Amino acid sequence: MKNGDLDRKQTNISDKQAELIKQALNDPSSFEGSMKITQGSKVLLHIKDGKVLVDSARLVQQSAKVELNTPDLSAKQMYQQYSEGVNHEGLAKTKQTAINAFQDGVNREDVTRMLRTEDDGYKKLVSSAGEQLANKSLNQIVNSAIAKTKIKDNVQSRQMKQEKTVTQTLTA
């Protein structure tokens, strides 16, 4: 992709979809709906209802960068979103919720804030072991979730490269 133009050899999207992507990249504030561009499980770009939530690949025009600093979801909304469907309890739920958030491109500070204010496992740990130990444990959980997310991204990246090599070999 260069200046919002897509390489037709690399993608199977329609002209209408390509135009919507170009519009979102050039003027995200006028984009309605939600658009995510991912590589493996890493979110490179996420635009939702005119707000740029994630732009780790710096795809959006410079004039729209101001949107990156506006908070999108409250900690409560984030927790509801990222803990949904997690079938663990206690600190295992805390870790999986953090992994889900990191896979969606949420930064460490926001994940930690979300867990401190909303996670029952963390709150129970504070009441039983004290805030200092709970914060130390939360930091270890967050570090572990980041590591697990990076490992998953690396595995998926390798698999994508292998699939591409196999496809190139088959077409050659």
List keywords for this structure.
172 residues; mainly alpha; 2 domains; three-stranded antiparallel β-sheet; 3 strands
Explain this structure to me?
With 172 residues, this protein is mainly alpha-helical. The protein has two domains: 15-69, no CATH class; 75-171, no CATH class. 56% of the residues lie in helices and 10% in strands. The chain has a three-stranded antiparallel beta sheet with strand order 1-2-3. Helix 3 (90-103) packs across helix 5 and helix 3 crosses helix 6. The chain starts with 14 loop residues before the first helix and ends with a helix. 24% of the residues are buried. Mean pLDDT is 79; it is low at 63-71.
- The number of distinct β-strands equals 3
Please tell me the overall pLDDT: 79
Low-confidence stretches: 63-71
- Helicity, in percent? 55-70%
Overall 3D shape: elongated
The SS-based structural class is: mainly alpha
Number of helices: 6
Largest sheet: 3 strands, antiparallel
Beta fraction: 5-15%
Order of neighbouring strands in the sheet with most strands: 1-2-3
Strand/helix succession: HEEEHHHHH
N-to-C span = 24 Å
- Radius of gyration based on Cα positions: 19 Å
What's the structural domain tally? 2
